[in-house]
């Protein structure tokens, strides 16, 4: 099981009341919610291995160079020659991220990130090189592109909450979007995604994007069909694709996750007991985490016994 950690702790932050605080008044609602998410997923899915994937760069330079509008609406502090752009993140959430990683370290749950890349790229790499089934936990539709029935890679989609998981396999992608199950990246490139600042092809919505992907496959094949006078593509759609040729030349680089990052080999075996009990006790006392940690440790012990 690989976790899109930021997707999860953002949801925890907005889903758990901000009145939940540590003894010193520090907000810990995202921490507590995130730990409860892991406890629930562990009991529900019983993974043998677990990795929390982190954003070491939420707006990578290679994606911004390709499409400057990529996540531009989320920039709180513009980039400078010496520092990257800063994402608009609530102060009460930002202070909790280091607490989350400290707790994961003390428990023995692996968390991974790669400089210059998003968590999506770490997830894509881990899912691609895995030798067994993979459950990707996320609230981000972009990761639907990883779904692969042959390799038993699927997404546990948490858009409706961690207790209302939508299991997304190739059939689910096809039902939802009317496209082949592994074609989500091409579909998203054509349609665009305002939440990520991806413009898409003007005049091409879900229906047209699905028809193009279903008929031709990937973006190069779609562009080739647009230039082929013998294809059945309508003149209007041909014109829209030709007008957007510059965008479509770079969109896949932005939309498609990287699958070959130099992610270190780690032992991600789900721990049955905390790796550092003393450190975990100190963190629990400092941040008032007794209840969620007891629930998580109970879930880990239960899975280990079975």
- CA radius of gyration is 21 Å
Question: Would you list the SSEs in sequence order as H and E?
Answer: EHHEHEEHHEHEEEHHHHHHHH
User: Distance between the terminal alpha carbons, to the nearest Å?
Assistant: 17 Å
Uncertain spans = none
Tell the overall outline: globular
What oligomeric arrangement do these chains adopt? single chain
Largest sheet: 6 strands, mixed
- Could you tell me the number of beta strands? 8
Helix content bin: 40-55%
Which structural class is indicated by helix and strand composition?
alpha/beta
The tally of helices reads: 14
**What is the average of the pLDDT values?**
94
Provide the spatial order of strands within the biggest beta sheet. Answer: 5-2-1-6-7-8
Strand residue content:
5-15%
Describe this entry's structure for a reader.
With 306 residues, this protein is of the alpha/beta class. It has 14 helices and eight strands. It has a six-stranded mixed beta sheet with strand order 5-2-1-6-7-8, sandwiched between helices. The two termini are 17 Å apart.
Offer a few descriptive terms.
single chain, 306 residues, alpha/beta, 6-stranded mixed sheet, 14 helices, 8 strands
List the helices and strands and how they pair.
Layout (H helix, E strand, L loop, with lengths): L1 E3 H11 L13 H17 L5 E3 L7 H6 L8 E3 L8 E2 L3 H4 L2 H11 L2 E3 L6 H11 L4 E5 L14 E5 L8 E3 L1 H8 L6 H8 L14 H11 L2 H9 L7 H9 L1 H11 L21 H11 L2 H16 L1
Parallel strand pairs: 1-2, 1-6, 2-5, 6-7
Antiparallel strand pairs: 3-4, 7-8
Helix pairs in contact: 1-2, 2-14, 5-13, 8-9, 8-12, 9-10, 10-11
